[in-house]
Recover the amino acids of this structure.
């Protein structure tokens, strides 16, 4: 299926958000995730299904003012 | 003083962006003696994981983090960013920015008030980046904000306090709400001016990070903010138009009534 991850088109077979993170090499990185503009809590990533057309955001701490 | 339920002693809040290197950032934070640093969220690549290094640097400082929603242009973006920040930084604090105009990065105060209300109801402790507008300030407080962060001037402009009258009015109207000048500060004298108005703290980033010597500039700002605070606490004199001799006149040599 085709989804968008951090603004980039991605083809994936990942069934869940946690599978997607593993597939893209995030490992144990401290990240927060949103699916279609809504927070997908870390505790729910196993249950969070990925479907065609989903817009995923994966973010981490960064410098800010 | 308290920011929400946290006791704070340093009146200097400092940003973590734009430094020449992480090492200089850490030295500048140390020199600033700030207890609170602002941070943000950005898209993370699974292969590079740049955010992980940054986070380990910040944790080492021991500072409290104030995550921002920089770059958000809608209520929904700001709310989702705040939710992600709360999860990742494990704090209810959020520096709420809803930007309404690209050239000035002026807050969209309508969206700001709405987002502040929604986030407060959801348990956040909101630090709203706002203008000096009194009515907006009242609505933010009604929405649940217990702190206000009016701009001095547009972010990164270094112009100082564009509307001293407005900032003074805000202080007078809200004597018991912590007020932090956030953005637009360029020089330590601007920070002194903010503190002399009775502001509780100053938040800045660019003026330190982009200085030729960020560590020295962080020290300069720390001194300035402390100086301005002590000035306000010491109750300065009023301005007057005419001279008033500081040396007692009566009894001076050659003095007589005709001089009086």
């Amino acid at each position: 299926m085709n989804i968008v991850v951090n603004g980039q088109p991605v083809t994936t077979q990942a069934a869940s958000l946690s599978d997607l993170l593993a597939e893209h090499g995030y490992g144990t990185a401290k990240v927060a995730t949103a699916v279609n503009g809504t927070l997908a809590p870390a505790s729910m990533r196993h249950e969070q299904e990925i479907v065609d057309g989903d817009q995923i955001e994966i973010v981490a701490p960064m410098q800010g003012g | 003083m308290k920011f929400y339920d946290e006791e704070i002693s340093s009146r200097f809040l400092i940003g973590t962006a734009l430094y020449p290197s992480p090492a200089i950032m850490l030295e500048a934070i140390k020199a600033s003696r700030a207890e609170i640093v602002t941070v943000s969220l950005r898209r993370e690549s699974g292969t590079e994981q740049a955010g992980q290094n940054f986070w380990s640097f910040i944790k080492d400082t021991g500072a409290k983090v104030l995550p921002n929603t920089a770059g958000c242009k809608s209520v929904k973006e700001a709310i989702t960013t705040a939710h992600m920040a709360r999860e990742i930084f494990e704090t209810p604090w959020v520096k709420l920015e809803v930007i309404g105009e690209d050239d000035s990065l002026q807050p969209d105060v309508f969206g700001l008030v709405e987002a502040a209300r929604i986030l407060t109801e959801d348990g956040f402790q909101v630090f709203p980046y706002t203008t000096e507008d009194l009515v907006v300030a009242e609505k933010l407080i009604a929405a649940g904000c217990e702190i206000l962060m009016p701009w001095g001037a547009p972010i990164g402009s270094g112009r100082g306090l564009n509307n001293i009258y407005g900032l003074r009015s805000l202080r007078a109207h809200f004597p018991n709400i912590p007020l932090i000048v956030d953005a637009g500060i360029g020089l330590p004298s601007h920070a002194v001016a903010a503190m002399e108005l009775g502001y509780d703290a100053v938040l800045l980033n660019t003026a330190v990070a982009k200085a030729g010597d960020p560590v020295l500039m962080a020290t300069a700002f720390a001194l300035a903010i402390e100086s301005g605070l002590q000035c306000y606490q010491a109750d300065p004199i009023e301005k007057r138009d005419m001279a008033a001799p500081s040396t007692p006149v009566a009894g001076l040599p050659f003095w007589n009534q005709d001089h009086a």
